[in-house]
Amino acid sequence: MATAAEARVWARSALRGIGDSLYTPFCGADGDDIDWDAYRTLVRYCVGDLGHPMLWCTSGIAEFWSLTLDERKQLLEVAIEEGRAANPDVVIQACTAAMSAKDCLDLTLHAQQAGADIAYIQTPMMETHGGEGVLRFFKYIGSHTDIALGMFNSPSSGYVLTPAESARIYDEVPAVCATKEGAFRPAASRLLHELAPGLVLWECDKTVYRAGWLRDGIVCPAQLGTAGYLFETPQRRLLSGYWDLIVNDKLVEAMDYGRESGLDQFDMDLGSWFICYPGRPDYFTHWGGAFKYAASLMGLPIGDYPHSRPPQAKLPPEAKVQIENAYRRLGLVGA
To answer: Which residues belong to the signal peptide in this entry (predicted)?
Structure first.
């Protein structure tokens, strides 16, 4: 674990490779319980079977807004226990976003004490007074903790920080060392790098990596939080093969690989079910039920309650058909 003072030096070398954002397998009536055996299996699969070097815990795909604080703490503890048993060097990233600064502090202190390496704070999802309010939020957490901190700039918050606002947080909160830019706006990420060149930045837009942004030092060689385990198996390491080409600056080969392996087509075949609810098409979401349905196609356990908890909707049949067809076309499901 990096202390606040060590965070920026640590992040430059430690944040590398594929980081898996874990779903939460629910069970019981209305999904009110968590299937802990299924969750342990998922962690072991990502770290042990796939060999991915980072985990991203209790964030959007995990449906953190539907979990109690105690559940979030236990999910992190289990991920640390199982992940470090499979690989003692696995980097544990904990999302400690919460509706109140006090709850966020509680979760961040717990992450620090439990042995997480870094805590990411998503831009608060309610009553955010712009960048100034988010800055106050980060300052409050930073002044009461001693762990590396990251930003998670997602449109699912309802407010996306500008590059200047993010750079100010980086300038004024020394523990902040990394950011997951999830708004798919590369021009803003490039400007953020110019304003805060020491900030470790992951851009969710894949095209910037093919454009040489890693070579130019704009983005980092890590996928800070993605569902990488849904894009490959131990027998067909599609995503790892693609990512290795990107990291080794073999960009033409990576573009050829994306086309020839079917990964590029897979993105189109999946559609937007992971990130968009059709009843609210202008809103970016992390639809937990869609991620878990895909995981079930891959043979991963998702608990006996396959849906998201409220306030998310249940995944409709047409989504399941499209997702399954995409996996069959890629060859990760069926013969």
So the answer is: none
Rounded to two decimals, the pTM is: 0.96
CA distances from residue 269 to 14, 262, 265, 313, 331 in whole angstroms, order as listed: 34, 10, 6, 22, 13
Closest residue by Cα to residue 24 from 14, 10, 38 = 38
What is the spatial distance between Cα 98 and Cα 303, in angstroms, rounded to a whole number?
25
Dig out the tokens for 176 from the structure.
């902040």
DSSP 116: -
Element (H, E) at 102: helix 101-114
The stretches of 207-305 forming alpha helices (DSSP H) are 207-210, 238-247, 251-261, 263-270, 288-297
- Residue 219 identity (one-letter amino acid): V
Compute the distance between CA of residue 167 and CA of residue 42 in angstroms, rounded to an integer: 35
Cα–Cα dist 159/14, whole Å: 29
For residue 150, give the 3-state DSSP assignment.
strand
pLDDT tens by residue, 218-249: 999 999 999 999 999 999 999 999 999 999 99
Q: For residues 64 and 21, is the Cβ–Cβ distance under 8 A?
A: no
10 Å Cβ neighbour count for 133? 15
Domains of the chain in start order, with CATH, are 6-248 (3.20.20.70)
